[in-house]
């Protein structure tokens, strides 16, 4: 019996962790202030009314750099339908690198720098990049991807969310 209790506790902890990790339900997006490259600020409240992709990334992340053209294409495809993208650079990413990347790649959406790491912490203590959240029009997180999303699946989800009232 004594061996069973620790195993059961580990199983419960893993199940809870998996529930957080594989977030498929909805939860309110955490209250955050995003500092954009131009120095202006956006808050989580500002996301309401649109379906928004919040992408935590870094210029040093090979997968992030590789997926960025698909993130741009997704933005371009849906931006006229009430869709937005917010790319949040991690705190360890040098601001000059982020600005250079955004300018040379002509990123068409808003880019924020999480200088203190507070935004990544608020959004589930994001450590791995890319980590991408899909936020519905009500400001609720409906999906979290760690690693590059399956873009065909992501597009179906965006279309479903855009169709909602």
Give short descriptive properties of this protein.
165 residues, alpha/beta, Glutaredoxin, six-stranded mixed β-sheet, globular, disordered N terminus, TlpA disulfide reductase family protein, Thioredoxin-like_sf, Thioredoxin_domain, Thioredoxin_ResA/DsbE_sf
In the CATH classification, which architecture applies?
3-Layer(aba) Sandwich
**Averaging pLDDT over every residue, what do you get?**
89
**CATH homologous group name:** Glutaredoxin
- Strand order of the main beta sheet, please? 1-8-7-4-5-6
Measured by DSSP, the beta-strand proportion falls in 15-25%
SSE ordering: HEEEEHEHEHEEH
- By DSSP, the count of extended strands is 8
Protein name: TlpA disulfide reductase family protein
Pfam families: Redoxin
Signal peptide: 1-18
Keywords: Signal
């Amino acid at each position: 019996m004594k061996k069973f209790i620790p195993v059961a506790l580990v199983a419960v902890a893993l199940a809870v962790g998996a529930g957080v990790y594989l977030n498929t339900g909805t939860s309110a997006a955490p209250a955050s202030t995003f500092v954009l490259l131009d120095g202006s600020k956006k808050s989580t409240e500002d996301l309401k009314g649109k379906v928004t992709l919040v992408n935590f990334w870094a210029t040093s992340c090979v997968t992030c750099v590789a997926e960025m053209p698909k993130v741009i294409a997704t933005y371009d495809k849906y931006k006229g339908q009430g869709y937005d993208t917010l790319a949040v650079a991690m705190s360890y990413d040098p601001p000059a690198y982020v600005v250079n990347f955004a300018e040379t790649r002509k990123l068409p959406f808003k880019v924020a720098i999480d200088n203190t790491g507070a935004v990544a912490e608020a959004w589930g203590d994001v450590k791995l990049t890319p980590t991408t959240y899909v936020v519905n029009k009500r400001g609720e997180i409906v999906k979290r991807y760690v690693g590059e999303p399956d873009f065909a699946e992501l597009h179906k989800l965006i279309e479903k969310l855009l169709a909602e009232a």
